[in-house]
Hints:
The complex is a heterodimer.
Chain A: H1 16-19, H2 22-44, H3 53-78, H4 86-104, H5 106-130, H6 135-154, H7 164-175, E1 177-178, E2 181-182, H8 183-201, H9 203-213, H10 215-220, H11 225-250, H12 262-273, H13 284-303, H14 308-325
Antiparallel strand pairs in A: 1-2
Chain B: E1 12-13, E2 16-17, H1 23-42, H2 49-74, H3 82-125, H4 131-150, H5 166-177, E3 179-180, E4 183-184, H6 185-203, H7 205-215, H8 217-222, H9 227-252, H10 266-276, H11 288-307, H12 312-336
Helix pairs in contact in B: 1-11, 2-6, 2-7, 2-9, 2-10, 2-11, 3-4, 3-5, 3-9, 5-9, 6-7, 10-11, 10-12
Amino acid sequence: xxxxxxxxxxxxxxxxxxxxSLEKHGIFVAFIVMMLVFYVLQLLGxxxxxxxxxxxxxxxxxxxxxxxxxxGQSMVLLVSGIDLSQGSLLSLSSVVMAQGFLDFGLxxxxxxxxxxxxxxxxxxxxxxxRVKIQPFIVTLSMLFICAGVALxxxxxxxxxxxxxxxxxxxxxxxxxxxFHIPGIMFIAVAVFVCLHLLLTRTALGRAIxxxxxxxxxxxxxxxxxxxxxxxxxxxSGITVAFTSFLYLARLPATNGLAGFQLEFQSLAAAVxxxxxxxxxxxxxxxxxxxTLFITFxxxxxxxxxxxxxxxxxxxxxxxxxxxxxxxxxxxx
Amino acid sequence: MSAVSTVDSERFIFGYPVKDIPWExxxxxxxxxxxxxxxSLATENFLSVDNITNVVRRDAWxxxxxxxxxxxIISGGFDLSQGSIMSVVSVMAWSAMLHFGFAGGLVIGLAVxxxxxxxxxxxxxxIRVYPxxxxxxxxxxxxxxxxxxxxxxxxxxxxxxxTLPVHVETAYVGISKGSLGPIPYPVMWVLIALGAxxxxxxxxxxxxxxYALGGSEDTALSAGINFSRMKIAIFGLSGFFCAFAGLLLxxxxxxxxxxxxxxxxxxxxxxxxxxIGGTHIFGGRGSVLGTTLGALLIIFLxxxxxxxxxxxxxxxxxxxxxxxxxxxxxxxREQNK
Lengths: 332, 337
């Protein structure tokens, strides 16, 4: 590894690649292996309740929540962009939603919250797609702007003063299970199907891949790449809007730090799943795999008794490791 | 500044061709001056020697992060892990000082930061992970390790428990709060870093390579520049600068080891100073002098807001908007060329 003579030489994985392509199935294999490892640890008594109906239900609920923003992040990554504002936009949207619910009732609150998230998604998209500013800077600035607005809005306090009737409504939406399958998962599956069909079966989907793969070529073949990018950021905003509502519904309380650093988790999940950073490669299936992998990894580590800080280290190491494995794909 | 000569470019202002005037720089200096005038009219204490000395002492770290970020962005990369490296260095240097004294702690702190940077460089240069992902990983690892090291608590400082020996603490605090005659030490550190970075970028082969890599990586590679070695050197240097920034800031907050030292808006400010300073986000262009101006603009902007009693949350919003506005202006100018 130390002497890669040619800068972008493609690595040869030898005979294994004849059976499974590490690039395509790597994360799936890794996921299975990880689950088996945790299961064995459970059998040995180091981990409690990992493979357990209640834990699995909860984890699928967490995964569904994370999946929305991972899907949004994937759309943005596909057009070689990035959305760093997801986490703080989620905070902002959820506090607006909660306050709106308290003051004007559920429908108005939800609409306000969704509106805020979608508006910021649009602003991101406009600045990146139309004004053509670098995505990284736009969304990084937006991260701090949204977080600031959310914290000013709440004054740093937690919004939780719902009456028990209001709490019931929210938790019915957020926590209802059908035969141990969390209700949120159905929404996640629906979103998955919609976006997957959008990417694979429509002209817009093709335009997204083309814009990410080679923007100049896309532009020359008559695609309005700015518009395509704008739509992708808008979708990211919409997924954030969904997530912020469901977050609020699951735990009827929120504050200005509700989505703190969530954008990094969604990035990690999307990238670990195999959506690449230079755009045009990846998709929604990768997003699902990445989401499941991250969710169960973090859950397994928690059950193993690994503390928050060590989990952070584990997440970082895993991210680098996953990308290192697929680094040979860079600039083929 | 590409010198495209059209008829239009023959106009002159003060004997200076209009096309060659670095308008971004002019706008920025204008903004900086009007900001200073505004604050000195709006507040009583802004334009006092005490205030300015304090700001420079407290925010000297930003210059180091921004210089490192400038070199990295010029070479076509990013460093997200700067804040985390500061945190790791802060806690490890503190622990080292407890056992090996001031000099030992200083050396170990700088070494730890440099090693983090070298790891970034190895991942990016040799394994060819994207700078964004590699340094994002380092961000998690760094802040996780820093918090694991101390269990999430502050070491020394105002906390009960082990404290540094008095002479070590005095020496440590001294690197931020001491003065040479009327000049505070941090000013000297910043000037040294500025001089060194400027010399490195403009007058050495290393600097030429940095610009070449950012201008066109493929061209630079075919011209025989050793990509791996350059990346390792660049990120290693960044790690060293971050380490020094971490030590300076820790020294300023009463010589404590603070595991969340770099967890705030360090990232936004360091990238912001670089971008406002006119460094081109896709690499290949930029200068440390511009970055210095950008950093000055940010620290005095924030300081003025502090004096006016505007809370951190609103400051975040304002700094974010300023950065967005500045890149908006430069992007529009870029397109109009």
